[in-house]
């Protein structure tokens, strides 16, 4: 972790800034909130969640820590908001996956897309994994939101498969949740953070094949 971040920030403050605060252009509350989120995410990704304080984020934005706290009560609430925004963007991208393809292909595309998103995030920014652990250990709401949004997408795919005559499912919500649980080994960010990318891709294929088979011929009660 970059424990020298705050020290370096402090050393950049010249005496000419002493006793003065740079004037910030007026922003709406929503614009200010977005600006805080963008800055916090950049600092967390670059220096690590543990190494960055609210005061550091405020200094980057030339605002007081109190102004940051006005929008986000805690540092963990910042992580929750950052993660929620990322989840919403990911799920939005899932919705544009070709709806013209057969349901089994859409299911496979969904699983591989989510897996690749997490693998890429781990490789591109090592400190992202630290933020993910915060969302889990602090039991932040973003985890529930992620499950809800992905289950809704899986539900839509299964229902399409039923209409196509490919899937034989009566209790769609139950199977959608079961499919999410089965996919957790390849789409959960912690799982993708512990394994080789090639192994994850093969595992993803195998799990999707298993789910597809179960949806085509579900067990009789």
UniProtKB/TrEMBL annotation:
Portion annotated as DNA-binding: 53-72
Listed transmembrane segments: none
Keyword Transcription regulation: yes
Keywords for the protein's UniProt record, in alphabetical order: DNA-binding, Transcription, Transcription regulation
PROSITE patterns in the cross-refs: HTH_TETR_2
InterPro entries: Homeodomain-like_sf, HTH-type_TetR-like_transc_reg, HTH_TetR, TetR_C_27
Spans annotated as Disordered: 1-32
Occurrences of domain HTH tetR-type (ranges): 30-90
UniProt keyword annotation of Transcription present: yes
PANTHER family: HTH-TYPE TRANSCRIPTIONAL REGULATOR RUTR, TRANSCRIPTIONAL REGULATORY PROTEIN
Protein name: TetR/AcrR family transcriptional regulator
């Amino acid at each position: 972790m970059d424990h020298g971040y705050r020290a370096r920030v402090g050393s950049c403050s010249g005496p000419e800034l002493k006793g003065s605060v740079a004037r910030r252009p007026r922003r709406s509350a929503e614009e200010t909130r977005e600006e805080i989120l963008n800055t916090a995410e950049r600092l967390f990704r670059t220096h690590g969640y543990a190494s960055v304080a609210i005061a550091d984020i405020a200094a980057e934005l030339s605002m007081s820590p109190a102004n940051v706290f006005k929008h986000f009560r805690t540092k963990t609430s910042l992580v929750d908001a950052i993660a929620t925004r990322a989840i919403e963007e990911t799920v939005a991208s899932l919705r544009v996956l070709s709806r013209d393809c057969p349901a089994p292909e859409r299911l496979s595309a969904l699983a591989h897309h989510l897996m690749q998103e997490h693998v890429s995030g781990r490789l591109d920014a090592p400190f992202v994994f630290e933020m993910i652990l915060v969302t889990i250990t602090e039991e932040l709401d973003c985890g529930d939101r992620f499950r809800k949004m992905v289950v809704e997408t899986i539900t839509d795919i299964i229902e399409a498969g039923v209409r196509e005559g490919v899937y034989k499912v009566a209790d769609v919500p139950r199977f959608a949740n079961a499919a999410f649980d089965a996919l957790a080994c390849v789409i959960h960010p912690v799982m993708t953070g512990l394994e080789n990318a090639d192994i994850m891709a093969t595992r993803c294929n195998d799990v999707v094949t298993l789910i597809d088979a179960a949806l085509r011929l579900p067990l009789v009660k």
